[in-house]
């Protein structure tokens, strides 16, 4: 059975992606740190909904993917063939006030997931950047074929 690792699974886009994958029979291993940038109760409610709806198709790992050792340890017993990396620290204003947290999650965390993919031989990885980054006015937005 295909299995996909989804980061940021307690967020709206992560939950919606996991829901769509499991609706078509894909097993999902969801990772989220459940930080308090957005309401943790809302995040827990989303996770409960996925668990209730899909049961054993869904596995949740409460881990910060910016912590390479914790991530490796949490993922060790799990097999997956794809990664959908949706987790990030959002918010331009927050990044100005807390650049370390932003860099840790969005840069170090992304690198950690690239390393997981490399060491495990993951064939496909999708990365969805946060909305607060994007092309400049002089550069056209990327298309679905941009690599």
TrEMBL record:
Domain (NAD(P)-binding) ranges: 5-133
Superkingdom assignment: Eukaryota
GO MF annotations in UniProt: catalytic activity
Gene3D superfamilies according to UniProt: NAD(P)-binding Rossmann-like Domain (3.40.50.720)
SUPFAM superfamilies for this protein: NAD(P)-binding Rossmann-fold domains
UniProt KW keywords: NAD
Matches recorded under InterPro entries: NAD(P)-bd_dom, NAD(P)-bd_dom_sf
Family affiliation: Belongs to the NAD(P)-dependent epimerase/dehydratase family.
Protein name as catalogued: NAD(P)-binding domain-containing protein
Organism: Diploscapter pachys
């Amino acid at each position: 059975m295909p299995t996909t690792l989804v980061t940021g699974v307690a967020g709206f886009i992560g939950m919606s992606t996991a829901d769509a994958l499991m609706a078509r029979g894909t097993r999902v291993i969801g990772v989220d740190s459940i930080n308090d940038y957005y309401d943790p109760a809302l995040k827990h409610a989303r996770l409960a909904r996925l668990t209730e709806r899909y049961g054993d198709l869904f596995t949740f790992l409460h881990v910060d993917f910016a912590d390479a050792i914790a991530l490796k340890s949490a993922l060790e017993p799990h097999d997956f063939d794809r990664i959908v990396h949706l987790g990030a620290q959002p918010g331009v204003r927050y990044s100005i006030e807390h650049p370390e947290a932003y860099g840790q999650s969005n840069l170090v965390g992304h690198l950690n997931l690239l390393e997981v993919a490399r060491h495990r031989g993951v064939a496909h990885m999708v990365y969805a950047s946060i909305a607060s980054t994007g092309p400049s006015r002089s550069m056209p937005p990327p298309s679905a074929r941009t690599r």
